[in-house]
Amino acid sequence: MTLAEARSLTFAHRRKVFLVSTPTIRGLSRIEREFEASDQRRYHVPCPHCGHVQWLKFERLRWDKGQPDTAEYHCEGCDAAIAEHHKTAMLAAGEWRATAESEDPGTVGYHLSALYSPVGWLGWTRIARAHEAARGSDEALRAFRNTVLGETWMETGEAPDWQRLADRREAWAPGTVPEKGLFLTAGADVQKDRIEVDVWAWGRGLESWLVDHIVIEGGPGDPDCWQTLTDLLVRTWAHERGQHLTIARFAIDSGFETSAVYAWARQVGFAQVAPVKGLEGFNRASPVTGPTYVDATIGGKRLRRGARLWSVATSTFKAETYRFLRQDRPTPEEITAGASFPPGTVHLPSWADAEWLKQLTAEQLVTVKSRRGFTKLEWQKLRERNEALDCRVYARAAAWIAGADRWSEARWADLEDQLGVAKANETDTGQGAAPRAQGRTAPRRRTMRSSYMG
Predict the structure, then answer these.
(1) Are residues 195 and 115 in the same domain?
(2) pLDDT tens across 343-373, in order?
(3) Where is the region Disordered (predicted)?
């Protein structure tokens, strides 16, 4: 950017330099830095009811929960609801106004979100619907904030207090899958003298439960260690409703003893096991990419494209985990009255000890400067051991690889039916399940039961 501006100096006073971009991460976005150095102009429009002039903010777009079709903008002056059809006249009567505190920043800057989109383009109802669809996914929410609102995404990497997490622990037996857990994934962290594995259950909205914590002594140089790991792939965990579940996807870190990890993954098959490699940084198109075929050295022999490797943006999943852990929860009284936990809630069992909780909260997101003077976000350890956090990230990546972030309502409903969760709820409440939407009768398709249902 500096070089491009320097080359424009040849044109002296006739030059114009335009910097146009969608913002990215707060504190790292170049266009954010340039906009903050400008006079920060926003497009102000008058309220059709009271005439109050304002610039449009997303927090004033309101709708009934789960009903984006009711979206209306509320004036910050009179709080009256403004319907979509008023927008045409509002835009025609609007004007750009500088909002920067500096009197003469020397640069003109403009910001415009999709809230100003003309009638017939991207309306308020579609914006509300897009936000509803993005809830529960950091990647989707970040894309919404960057592309629809034109705002930076704030990565929140503050580690929650482990003692507060201890106070929130819930009672269920080790190895038992709570009722709303619909499938299992596992994350394995390979150490010099052991392999640690955490098994997580996942439900709708990526709500999750720690089901098991397993430490396999011996390390990657011990054949018995790998055999024990193999046995986990066929082991079953009892669901609260009587079914038995196996691990749908098993993600194992390949950063240490890579050859041994590849050899084991080839032996047991890549259909269930996913060797993963962590990547730093937030500015990635997807939190998980792959698989890519990589060369593997097995038994002293080099095999071209001998292993499948998944790349995982660990920073993204760490930030998501900490955000989920800090979420407010309903009180016991509200739960008794029928309140549900917010999407992404992380449930921890009473048998998760202090050491495990400290490992889960062992890192902090900080802003550091590189040698060239650029700032970046970086995860730093608060304590030496962080296996619980790493295993959580790998298990979360396994859920992404299994497709949980992209499953349809029908897919979740099918898992509930296979486990008897929906039928159990009907029995407990004495009421029938909510009727599904009726449409044209479609040809019957063959239904395959999930292979990880025991």
Answers:
(1) no
(2) 999 999 999 999 999 999 999 887 777 777 6
(3) 424-454
The answer as to whether 48 is a domain residue is yes
Q: Which amino acid is at 334?
A: E
Q: Which residues pair with 202 in a beta bridge?
A: 183, 208
Q: 278 is in which domain, residue-wise?
A: 162-427
- Give the number of other Cβ atoms within 10 Å of residue 219's Cβ: 17
Query: In the predicted model, is pLDDT for residue 164 greater than 70?
Result: yes
Indicate whether 7 belongs to any domain: no
pLDDT value of position 263: 92
| pTM, full prediction | 0.67
Q: Please check the confidence at residue 435 and state whether its pLDDT lies above 50.
A: no
Domain count, the chain: 2
pLDDT digits (tens, 9 = 90+) for 252-306: 999 888 999 999 999 999 999 999 999 987 767 789 998 999 888 777 778 888 8
Give the separation between CA 436 and CA 428, rounded to whole angstroms. 20
Helix (H) or strand (E) segment spanning residue 167: helix 162-167
Same domain membership, residue 204 and residue 88: no
Burial class of residue 77 (count of CB atoms within 10 Å of its CB; 0-12, 13-18, 19+): middle
State the Cα–Cα distance between residues 401 and 80, nearest whole angstrom: 46
Using the CB atoms, write b or e for 411-439: b if 16+ within 10 Å.
ebbbbbebbbbeeeeeeeeeeeeeeeeee
Q: Up-side HSE of residue 343: CA atoms within 13 Å toward CB?
A: 13
- Rounded Cα distance between 404 and 238, Å, is 21
Residues 273 and 133 in one domain: no
Asked whether residue 315 is assigned to any structural domain, the reply reads yes
